[in-house]
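User: These chains co-purify. Model them together.
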Amino acid sequence: MTSLRQIGLVLFQRIEAAFDAIFSAAHNPWRHLGALGFYFFWLIAATGLYLYAVLDTSVEHIGASINYYSREQWYLGGLLRSIHRYASDAFVVVMFLHLAREFFYGRYFGVRWYAWITGVPLIWLAYASGIGGYWLVWDQLAQFSIIASAEWLDWLPIVTDPMARNFLTPGAVNDRFFSLLMFLHIGIPLMLMLMLWVHIQRISRADVFPTRTLGLGALAMLVVLSLLQPVVSHAPADLAIVPAAVDLDWLLLFVHPLMYATSPAALWGLAGAFTLLLAVMPLLPHKKTQAVAVVTPEYCNGCRRCFEDCPYSAITMLPHPDKPGHSLAQVDAALCVSCGICAGACPSSTPFRSADELVTGIDMPQQSIGAVRQALEVGLNALTGAPKIVVFGCDCAAALKGLQAADTAAISLLCIGLLPPSLVEYTLRSGADGVLITGCREGSCAYRSGNTWTAQRLAGEREPHLRTNVPPARLRVVWADAHDTAPLHSALATFRQDLQNLGTEMKPLHVPVRRMTHHD
Amino acid sequence: MTKSSVTPLSLIGQVVFYGLFALIIGYFSTQPSYRHMAPDRALIKLSFSHQAQLVADCRKRTPEELAKLPPNMRAPMECARERSPVKVQLSLDGTPLYDGVAQPSGLSRDGASTLYRRFEIPAGEHKLAVKMNDNVRLADFNYVKEEKVTLKPAQILVVDFSAERGGIIFVQ
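Assistant: Joint model of the two components:
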């Protein structure tokens, strides 16, 4: 399972990197599949509202009504009908790509089980909504689909009268029944919307809106497709005959041919097995969950930065028990993914503090800020070459193995978001000539926001920020995914050369304010 | 983190990507065409929802039996609720297509017996025979219908049961 995920992850990250060059990471559709799903849902809802308002939704007249809008009012009603249909197909495509991406990124077990599990019923609801929409046109495709669906549901021993008996003879379907179908086509998408909301509950700043550029691009694509290939109906439904050949929407209706090629029982088996597999995946053996962030109340000043930066809403602010009027961070172990982004955000994580044992307001037991400072000091002391470079990397991004050299110390963090910006200045003041920071590419962060927050902190756009007295030439940032080791090595070589070229301009920043601890 | 820089090449790349995505959606939205049944075939749907005969007649309770019952439950007649299973045979040109039993629904087996089966057959003229027994106390079939039917390609013939219309019916 792990090796399959690794292969898939590298494949996805290579595709994403290639698309970064075309779209830039901010507008890269592969990095915003969930947001695109939401976007297509809203497009479906908006176009559906118009269609519901104007169409004559009676079994006798729906065909003529929809054909009128498709042919006579092709520029509005017809266009919206086509967008409604193609956005549904696009929704299904991005839904499965999103599912695959989250799987390959390993975002389905541990504390992230919730979003995964709540995503499973979304697949059923998406298909129920999409397939049900086809019935309302009441053409021969609708007839084929509704009878196939009824025959599939009839396999379950839940109702006495077979549902397929509702479609035995011409005239069997009346307006009352059709109203039920209409109710289902509104009710199920409403349930879908509710579940989408539930799906993102444990994620802070969920990516539910694509950028304007991406949204406009996707909309333009749907409009052009709708104009080039407008959606048209089949011949009106006729329950006296079997629809000869239907132009099937394979993205939504593939289940029907699959059932006729096998059996209703086999299709239930497949659908049930797929659902069960998805549902039990979080329970399968995975690497041991790491220790969660720990708050030390004496050092927490209630600044809320960890609360703001946590990508999984694992931190809440409570009244401080000892300091009236102050807040105290509290970590919910059931939500914490052990990334350490909170430690990087904490103002008490500054390495300039003189205490030998650096205790911060919030920290990671498995890689405390104090331990990182100690590793840095040991690494720097061991450097013999010049220029002296310290690389701060991320366990989830390009591996730092192989970067260690006589002039280079490499320190891999749980997430690059764990790096307090003050540690960069501290590193330079401690004798390093340059600091190279690397982490996952934009949109690839295993913990969603670590690289973004780090970039913003270094740019002075987010607290805690990097002080402006750090010479930009002495700092290099290289975003590199797991497969980007070669570009990372190359970037380090370039940085080394650039530092050498600085020569005498590369004045040392002054001695650290802290007494250096002697590490054996 | 990264600045968005639109170059002519990246614009072309975006158009190609959106075009490719639209092509996939546009194609699979209607193609390839699916033929559910061969063009020279027709379909018979054997389906009914029928409340069969009770397995036993009602009988009058004796005065002793009535006396043993609570006063509010002393109904003079005792009627079995259970209904007979419905036996069905369907044959086409003398060849059996279906021979089965539809059990009554409900925990007390007092509900309707239902059936829904579909049979693809060659279009054309056929001799269709349906036999049905809805009374467990009868050894033979109490409903029989045999008819010559002509089915065009893709046509559906429904074999149903309607007590009001005299039993087995063919709907074309």
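The CA atoms of residues 53 and 99 of chain B lie 20 Å apart.
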